[in-house]
Amino acid sequence: MTLIPVRYSHLTFGVIQSGLTSGISAAVASVPFWQQRSFLAHWLSAWSISWLIMLPIVVFAAPFIKALVHRMTHDVG
C-alpha cells in the first residue's frame, strides 16, 4: 500500500470526510427511490454532485473550524 506523505494529511482528511458525509446525506435523500428500484442510480448521481461541491468547502473550511473549536474549548486536565 502506498502511504500518503503527512504534508497532505489535511487534504486526505477532507477527501475522506466530505466523501463519507455527502455519501450518507445522498443515501438518506435517495430513500424514496427505493420502491422505484432506482435508489442506486439516484444515490450515485446525488453523491457525486454533492461530493464535488463539499470537497473544496471542507478542505478550505476545516482549518478555520479547527481554530474556532480550539478557541471554544480548553483542556480540563
Can you walk through the features of this model?
This protein has 77 residues and is mainly alpha-helical. The chain has a domain at 26-72. Helices cover 73% and strands 0% of the residues. It is built from 2 helices and no strands. It has helices at 9-30, 39-72. Helix 1 crosses helix 2. The protein is elongated and about 55 Å long. 5% of the residues are buried. The model has no long low-confidence stretch (mean pLDDT 91).
**Which structural class do the helices and strands define?**
mainly alpha
What's the β-strand tally? 0
Low-confidence stretches: none
Query: Mind summarizing the main beta sheet?
Result: none
Mean pLDDT: 91
SSE topology string: HH
Overall radius of gyration: 17 Å
Q: Looking at the structure, what is the overall shape?
A: elongated
Q: Approximately how much beta-strand content do the residues carry?
A: under 5%
**N- and C-termini, Cα separation:** 38 Å
Helical segment count:
2
Short précis:
The chain has a domain at 26-72.
Note the main attributes of this structure.
77 residues, mainly alpha, 2 helices, 73% helix, elongated, membrane, transmembrane helix, DUF2798, DUF2798 domain-containing protein
SSE order and pairing:
Layout: H1 9-30, H2 39-72
Helix pairs in contact: 1-2
